[in-house]
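Note to self: the last two entries modelled the partners one at a time, which told us nothing about the interface. This time every component goes in together.
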Amino acid sequence: MLSSFSLDRLGDGQSAYVVRVEAEPAMGRRLLDMGLIPGTRVTCRGRSPAGDPAAYLIRGAVVALRTRDAASVGLAPGPVTV
Amino acid sequence: MGLTHTSTGAGAAGGALVIQRRSPQDRVVALAGNPNVGKSTLFNALTGLRQHTGNWPGKTVANAQGRHIRHGRDYILVDLPGTYSLLARSAEEEAARDFLCFGGAGAAVVVCDATCLERNLNLVLQTLELMPRTVVCVNLLDEARAKGIQVDLEKLSQILGVPVVGTSAGRLEGLEPLMAAVEGVCDAPQPPEPFRADYPPAVEAALARLEPPLTAWLSGRLPARWTALRLLDRDPSLLQSLSEALGGDPGADPAVSAALASARAELEAAGWEGEALREAVASALVRAAAGIAEAVATCRPTRREARDARLDRLFTSRATGIPVMLGLLALALWLTIWGANLPSSLLSRALFWVQDRLTDLFWYLHAPAWLHGALVLGVYRTLAWVVSVMLPPMAIFFPLFTLLEDFGYLPRVAFVLDHAFQKARACGKQALTMCMGFGCNAAGVVGCRIIDSPRERLIAVLTNSFVPCNGRFPTLIALLTMFFVGAGGGLGRSLLAAGLLTGVILLGVAMTFWTSRILSATVLKGVPSAFVLELPPYRRPRVGQVVVRSLLDRTVFVLGRAAAVAAPAGLVIWLCANLRVGEGTLLSLCTGALDPFARLLGLDGVILMAFLLGFPANEIVVPVMLMGYLAAGSLTDLGDLEALRALLVQNGWTWRTAVCTILFSLFHWPCSTTCLTIAKETGSVRWTLLAIALPTAVGMGLCALTAAAARALGLG
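The predicted structure of the combined assembly is written out below.
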């Protein structure tokens, strides 16, 4: 079960750290390509007009993810050790 | 610099990659890299070719090769599609990996984005495992400097163990040192010993067991460590390619197979198997890349970061995202309409003056009337219309579109529109292919390769022609201007025309959403798949270069097509109009036969015939239509839109005819080039037929409804 704090809940301008990624395989691999592994710091860079998708700063690149997919990424507010 | 001659039209799809060697001494060098790091710009700079470039991930969908000559030796550069990894989860990744493994490349250049080095290094580490003779090219150094990012290239080279060269390909900086480094790694008698990422101890132990027998079996054809990793994670796509290329399955070798079995057993005992193993390997690479990036790149925040964030807020926020998008579309269309006015009238005056002189010449030479008719009234006049009415808007809209593309606006459109595509159960990247469709539907169809899910890709292919391509804009503009705005320039009029045209395009976009949704609910059932879209940093477009290049490109392209398609069509129409068959002419017979059905659609026989004859190229529809009417009439001076309008009205046009023709222009069968491209991309006659039937049915339905409603209400 994911903690209540997942990537889709990250507010505009907020940052947090990835604890786990529980996406289905195809999505999981795409997220891995972006370098989204446990321990990674992510920052929310804003939402689209409809609120979904949202843009995130991941390892120096801005990446858009849909709410459904972002919900599979569990976060912690502070740095995590892996 | 946006879509180019080679990336639109018939050349869009590209072909299978066959390396064209001129001599056995030729060296093959693969250009790999993440999407949107400037690989194609670098490729163009090194080879003098003109591949499509632009600021959004996924433009290069087909492999391209080009030649760079250095010290009398040919280097064949192969521009691979951008990939984030070589772990072969998508078609492009598989293509890139297979080319590096088996394509015969003597060396690789991995192009990195200096502004985002950390993520790019992941691909570098993967490539080094596979191809030690690699040069790392840290590109976009100019942008990195502007963003306050410093990269210690020397230290990076020390850590990686391979040459590292800094470039700014857009400004042609660093190209000579890059090729010198490529020459160096090719010349080196022994490949370098590059950096190796450390995997979890159990994985390392398994590798140590498997590497010695594999080294013997491979005998230098592929690096043993890399092959061992792929064998351990049982990558099925690779095993097949391996067996094909190396002429045998390594698992069939007794020593390899014994080592593999015990290595796998140990890994399983340690809990590393399947997805867990793959993830551990991939994560180790990500961590190694992060460590290296931290050691070599320093960043101090600059105003550029803040500027990008501000621009993103303007282009994508709830309050401004959609209004700004509509505003930019309307602005581009207004500039097109307003800008085309003057050149259009000048060209038409000049070309029709030439027509009169040609007529004088034919009279002077006592040429027979039929020859004058066929060549001057048929071929020349059609050409003159294509050039004067169709060319100016095409040549103006195209560079404008390219500027937005270079700037980095297209991914923001995809970001803003994704929600609508999500509701249609399609992929947000379809917005990118839709935008490409504004340039050229064939290029849009090829661009659909950026969509990973086959279901979503088909939806994008089938609905691409719902947005009007560059060749259909002038028709829409001409009809809107003639019937709803009034010709004759003026700021108010051009603004009104741009507003109406924006509305027409939005109708096309709405229809794209609607048909995508219907397709998802019927023949292409399914749920939306993974959607990850990178929003690249904004780049200052190279305005001068883009405008000159794409204006020339478009002009040459349209002129070429006009000569190849419009001129013969003009001849055919003139012949049909002058060949007598019984009571009437062949033309009146044809249009007469089409007329009853066309009337149902609010059109007439001539209009429908023009659309049929316009199958090879949409920009000849209006000229053919005019030829059809003129064949019966006697008007000669058709210099401006006002005179054209008079001709159309004389032939029974009302605003209702205009509306139906606009609708039909927006929704009818794709042009022949697009149809061929769809057939090539889908590999299926059935889907191609559906791609033709879908817009045609929508167009006919809408036209018939409009015509019936207007009749019922007693309008027009």
